Amino acid sequence: MLKIAILNQKAGVGATTTALNLAAAYQRKQRPALLLDMDPQARLTEIYKHTGLNVQSSLLDFYERGTAVANLVQPLRNGLQVITANHALSKLDSQFGRGPATLSKLNAGLGTLAQQQPALTVVMDCCPYMGVISLSAVFASDLVVVPVTTDYLSIHSAVRMDKALNALQPVLKRKIARRYLLTRAESRKSMTTEVEQEMRRLFGQELLMTKIGEHAALSESLRMGQHVFEYDAQSAAAHDYLALYFELQDVFRQLNRQPMATLV
Asked: PANTHER family under this entry (predicted)?
C-alpha cells in the first residue's frame, strides 16, 4: 500500500483537485485507489455527493466509534473508492488532543486495510492547517505532496510547510519524504518562471518537474462532479496529472532504493 498526503497550510492551492485527479490517474493505470477526505470542509465528498454516498458514514466514525477503516470505504461508479468527511471532523482536536496514540491511530487503521488490499494507493486530501487530522495523515504517509500555486505568497507557505514537516521529524524519528508541486501554472507568465526558479533554489530536487497548468477542464470537471479523465481524458489537464503519476513512480523508486533515514 502506498499512502500519499496532499497537504498545504495555505488554502486555495488546488489540494482537493490534485488529490482527486492523482487518484484517478492511479486508477486509470489499473492501480486501485482510495480517496480519503480528511478536510472538515468536505469538498471532495461534495463532488460525489450526488452519486448516493452515505455522508453520515465518515472518517469520524473511525475515531469516535472504532469503526474499521475497511467498513468506511464506499465505491464510486467510476472505479475509485472514497471515505467521506463531514464538518464534525473539526471536533477531533478538542476531543482527542495530539497525543501519540491519536496521531498514530490512522496509520494503524490503514495498516489493517493494507492486509486486505495490499495494492491499494491511498490519497489523503488534508485540511489546510496542522491539526490532528493533517498530523495523522503525515504520520501515516509514505510521501507528502505539497501543492504550491505560482505566486509569491505561496513560496512563503511552502517554506512554512517545510519547517513544520522538519519539526515533526524528531517525533517520528525519520525524515518525512516530501515533494512540492506547482499548480495553476501558466507558462506564458513570467511569474510562473520566477516562482519555479525560486522554489528550485529553495527545495532543489524536492520540487517536482511536473507542473499542473491553469486549465478550464479542471474547474469544469469539478462542476460536473467528475475527475478530469471522466470529463476529457485527452485534455491538457489530464496529461498533466498522468505526468504527475509517472513522476511519482520515479520518486517512490528512488525512495525505496535509499535506506530509510532515521533521526536519533
From this structure: P-LOOP CONTAINING NUCLEOSIDE TRIPHOSPHATE HYDROLASE, PARA FAMILY PROTEIN CT_582
As given in the structure block, the three cell numbers for residue 5 are 498526503
Per the domain annotation, does 260 fall within a domain?
no
Give me the CATH number covering residue 92. 3.40.50.300
pTM for the structure as a whole? 0.93
Q: Are strands 74-75 and 81-83 parallel, antiparallel or unpaired?
A: antiparallel
| 91 within some domain | yes
The CB-side HSE value for 58 (13 A sphere, CA atoms) comes to 22
CA-nearest of 103, 207, 99, 195 to 153 is 195
Q: How many domains does the chain have?
A: 1
Beta-sheet pairing, 143-149 with 81-83:
unpaired
Q: Taking each helix axis as running N to C, give the angle between helix 105-116 and helix 132-140, from 0 to 180 degrees, rounded to the nearest 10.
A: 50
Q: Which tens digits make up the pLDDT trace of 142-195?
A: 999 999 999 888 999 999 999 999 999 999 989 999 999 999 998 788 889 999
CA distance 67 to 73: 11
Residue 63 φ/ψ, nearest 5 degrees: -80, -45
Domain annotation covers residue 263? no
